[in-house]
Each structure stands twice: as C-alpha cells, then as structure tokens.
Write a structure and sequence with these properties.
There is one protein chain. The protein has 185 residues and is an all-alpha fold. Helix content is 72%, strand content 0%. It has helices spanning 10-18, 23-46, 49-66, 76-95, 103-115, 124-134, 138-148, 154-161, 165-184. The chain starts with 9 loop residues before the first helix and ends with a helix. 24% of the residues are buried.
Length: 185
C-alpha cells in the first residue's frame, strides 16, 4: 500500500508534525486524511460549495497554527471537527442565515442552492431531507449531521460541542422527530 493513501495514527501524524524537518509533509498528510470528512461536515451546515471551501481553508489555517499546542486530550479528528464547527458557526452567525426566515424561505433557498449546484445529484427525497435539516434549530442541526452522516459517537460529539451526552441524545431525538415530520408533510 502506498504510504500517502494509508491512514496514519494520531501519534504518527503528531510526531511527524512536531519534527521541524517533516512538519509540512505531515501537515499535508493530516489534511489528506481529514479534509474530505471535514469538508462534508461543513458543507452540510452551509450547503454552498464556495462558502464551504472558505471555511475549510480557515479551519486548516487554525489547525496549522494550533497543532503545536494540541494537548491530545481528544482524538485529532475530534479537535479538528471542533475547530471546523466553530468556524462554521462563526460564519453562519456573521451572515445571519437564520435571522427570521420562514420555513418556505428556507425551502426556497435550499432548493435553489442545491438545484444550481453541479455537485448535488440528489432526488426529491434528498431535497426534502436537506430542507428539513436546514429548518432545525442550529444545535439540533449540528447534532443531527454529526450523528446521522458522520456516525460520530456521542462521547466525541460531547467533546466537540462541550455538552453532555444526555443533552446530545435528547437533541438528536428531537431533531429526528422534526425531520421525520417534515419529510412526511
């Protein structure tokens, strides 16, 4: 197996990054290993490809700057997801995407965004799912995406979102119910 396509452990990546001679090479490996997953995590929250790329770039700039101080109290991908989540929330707050928009406005915006996106090939049910997810309150939307799409364990989500496992389970349960109701409309 080619080493560049192989999955590395956090320890291997961090040791390589902490060595001045191999820092850039190992940062490239970190990006290669996590970039796609982080991209789709962000994309599900903002929907737009260009905005996602901008947030992804900001995320990995922060990873680069903060990696020397990474205390290894969590998995590397959990730490990166936390940075990506915070960057995405900052972006969404600055654009006021959720400010007093009705369900119909959300549906129209998502429909236009996804149908004009050459990277989206979903059918009607996928469109309904995306509209239902976008209509969720911000916290429920994030929890739903992390659990449903990324199949992230609640313990990892608790570290990323700095909340309890019980609160996350309740948020996910409520989100699932709202998504089901919305799709069945």
């Amino acid at each position: 197996m080619n080493k560049s396509t192989q999955q590395f452990t956090d320890l291997e990546l961090l040791q390589g990054f902490r060595n001045d001679a191999s820092r850039e090479k190992y940062f490239a490996l970190i990006m290669h290993q996590y970039q796609k997953r982080v991209y789709y995590h962000i994309r599900r929250m903002v929907l737009d490809h260009d905005d996602t790329d901008d947030i992804l770039q900001n995320t990995f700039i922060k990873v680069w700057k903060g990696l020397t101080n990474f205390r290894e109290e969590s998995h590397l991908y959990t730490w990166i997801y936390k940075i990506a989540t915070n960057e995405t929330l900052t972006f969404l707050n600055s654009k006021n995407k959720r400010a007093s928009t009705s369900y119909d406005e959300v549906e129209f915006t998502i429909s236009n965004t996804l149908s004009s996106d050459k990277n989206f090939s979903g059918d009607e049910i996928e469109m309904k799912l995306q509209v239902a997810i976008a209509a969720l309150p911000e916290k429920q939307r994030i929890v739903f995406n992390l659990r449903y799409y990324d199949e992230m364990p609640y313990d990892d989500m608790a570290k990323i979102l700095e909340t309890s496992v019980g609160a996350l389970k309740a948020s996910y349960h409520h989100a699932v119910k709202k998504v089901e109701e919305s799709i069945l409309k």
